[in-house]
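Batch job 17 of 40 flagged for manual review because the log was empty.
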Amino acid sequence: MNSRREFLERVALSTTGLALGGALAPGLATGAPTPMAQGDWDLTWRERVTGRKRAVMDAPTLEDGLGVFRSVVWRRQQSAVFGIPEQDISVVLVIRHNAIPLAMRQDFWDRYDIGTEKGVKTPLSQEPTTRNPALDAWNGQPAPAQFSSMTLPAFMASGGIVLACNLAFQDCVDRVARVDGLAAGSARERAVSMLLPGIILQPSGVFAVTVAQEAGCHYVLASS
């Protein structure tokens, strides 16, 4: 987020939009998150939180993609220690606040030079990288077998649920608008097209975390 004030303004405008059924006067707030009515949010992921063990992994910081690693490791440990099949363990990963670039495809990272700007490093070797470590933690090299499942696509393919904060996602929209010279609506459309398939936007990351807790998930701070 660029500033505390900007964040609070976004929260206020987006929640006003929710209260009004998603309708704000055109031009009321340039760059504000597109307000959405209750029915516009996909909450069907709650139906997939059925495991005997359940956790919501809160990832508010980029931290070189380690929030994804911890989500995978926790599930493995629960399976190994308690003898529960991994498919019977529910893990919800919430990407929010400064971690939001992890939810974006590599073409977003390349076009907007995210790795260099954020000083991203590979999780294990700690080498500087321009790649999204949640997609490629090994900087283009083959992943060691024991770590091959520690990417967002692999995590989701194995049943992991990944949610992203819509308020933080506005940073991605603003970047697209600024660099590509697009109006707010077009910028959001382009940013959404570069969101990693399978990730579900929620009104906010805090919203997503609390809804996951209501579904029986234990809270874990996955990045700091």
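Reviewer: the log was empty due to a logging misconfiguration, but the result itself is present. The longest strand covers residues 53-59. Unflagging and moving on to job 18.
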